[in-house]
Amino acid sequence: MPKLFCFLLVLIVASATTQFAHAADPALLRANGQTVYIPVYSHVHHGNLDSRGVPSRLLLSSMLSFRNTDPEAELTLVSVDYFDTNGKLIRRYLAQPRRVGPLASADSFVEHRDVAGGQGASFIVTWRSERPINPPLAETVNTYAFGTQYMVFTARGRTLETDSTK
Asked: How many CA atoms lie within 13 A of 35 on its CB side?
């Protein structure tokens, strides 16, 4: 009986902790807009160090996937900016704001041969909406494909700022 009680207590505490974590996560609260940081892996180091102490480098392409998770409201992408490892702006992907409909998505692409971002590149995306909505999902899909060798992984964005004033 004590084992069953302990097991149930652990389940209750885990459930409550998960609910509290979700409630405290600004990415899960309805908002009128956000600024989101999304990591980009334009290359990754691998293998052994060479005679100069430098590891091998594998070049990757990266697709920013920005998905409106609200089934009823559109949002507006205000900016999609690409930064290098040192935080220097490399490129702006939007010439003007872009609307993204309910459950629709938008993407931006960094080519395999584009090494300007370095290993610590990132996107900073700002979006807004007319009313509070479900925050979108922002992540990169980082890929390498050559012959029969493939590497694919995702990196999820992190909310830097939330606008929930309306």
From this structure: 6
